[in-house]
Amino acid sequence: MRVTVIDYKAGNLTSVLKALRHLGAEAEVTDGDLAPIERAERIVLPGVGHFAATQRLDATGLTAAIRAAIARGVPFLGICVGMQWLYAGSSEAPEQPGLGHFTESCTRFSESKEKVPHVGWNSLEIRPNSRLLAGIDPGEYVYFTHSYKVPVTADTAAITHYIEPFASAVERGNVMGVQFHPEKSGETGLKILGNFLKWEGNE
Amino acid sequence: MITKRIIACLDVRDGRVVKGVQFVDLIDAGDPATQAARHAREGADEIVLLDITATHEGRQTLLDTVRRTARELFVPFCVGGGIRSADDAAQVFEAGADKVSVNSAALADPMLIDAIGRSFGAQAVVVAIDARRDPEAADPVRDAQVLVQGGRKLTGRRVVEWAREAEAHGAGEILLTSMDSDGMRTGFDCELTAAVSEAVNIPVIASGGAGTVDHFVDVFGRGKADAALAASIFHFGVSSARSLKEELAKAGVSVRLPC
Lengths: 203, 259
Hints:
CATH class of chain A: Alpha Beta
Number of strands of chain B: 11
Number of helices of chain A: 6
Largest interface: A-B, 34 and 33 residues
Strand order of the largest sheet of chain B: 1-3-4-5-6-9-10-11
Radius of gyration of chain B: 17 Å
Largest sheet of chain B: 8 strands, parallel, barrel
Oligomer: heterodimer
Number of domains of chain A: 1
CATH topology of chain A: Rossmann fold
Largest sheet of chain A: 8 strands, mixed
Shape of chain B: globular
Number of strands of chain A: 12
Strand content of chain B: 15-25%
Number of helices of chain B: 10
Helix content of chain B: 25-40%
CATH superfamily of chain A: Class I glutamine amidotransferase (GATase) domain
Order of helices and strands of chain A: EHEHEHHEHEEEEEEEEH
Structural class of chain B: alpha/beta
Strand content of chain A: 25-35%
């Protein structure tokens, strides 16, 4: 299993790489070199921190290369900000467009008595036939840390409730995303990353 | 539903766990990597490794210990002790930590919080506050004092104020240790924890004073804590984080189970 991990200088890649390698993947990192994307068998886009950091993907040409890879059918997984980037944009950085693969946008949690950011272990309400979440029991917990989220739509693979229901996982065709951190979500998270690594394309 | 986190804390000196070893399997007791893995396996929601000698002896966190501990750990992992600069933090992240905890260095220069957050995200910066009530003050809780050097030195700063300021600088979480309660096993300082938790919009991790399961129930309720640190949960009459969480669930606290 070969996987290309994209480094756009938004946080630390160590944990993601460690989890992928633990699962037996051969992980290659690119921080702007397009060749690894052009030959990629699978792509993971991690990311923590600010949506504005995704500007680097545009500046390096990675956005166009990723778009082409997705069009070729390469399985793609976005984690946290990496998932949010698959959408049209985010109110966290309104001037910075996302990939626009999904048409909705990312918004901040509404004001309420609950704290924002949403930090900690929360449960997944899994939609039927999710490939990414195959074998995960309803109500299993995963680790979140974020202040922005995307809405529930037909492409939503899992819903989580905090202040309001939001999409904690999305998948359509070869493009998948998770708002939580599978690399920090114990056995449940490793199983989800394993599902992504094992997925054989358009079945 | 979001759950309350039980965080296992390993106090480490010279690469060995130095506290909470009396009641556990003595064969494995001293090794941080083994301990962390066991806590994760037995249901801890997160692991904190504090190099307790680092600050006052000016010693760097032992990166090898961090690297070894992080290797097979797939729950959030926070490392503190001796982190005095963004470069120190970067080395600890590189070694596999997900978060760093900063204490006296952030008090000396709060811009350290901004600097680490800029590179690694706000979620990666935990500001640890050692607190003591001020019995002389009109309101001993609101006026509780910040201590440094393992609780030996007063700073003249007020806890609630400093927590707010740390949040404004981009702290992701507050780790609040009550030095009045620490080691006493008489319960967390719920009033102080609630005062801090209500003053900020970031998670507050309560620490110091746990002696029974009820103390945890109390700090998650009355104390409004988002998480609680167990230096050694084996002191509390339970055998693991899992059994502590099972007791908490029975008391109506939302926790990650099964785990």
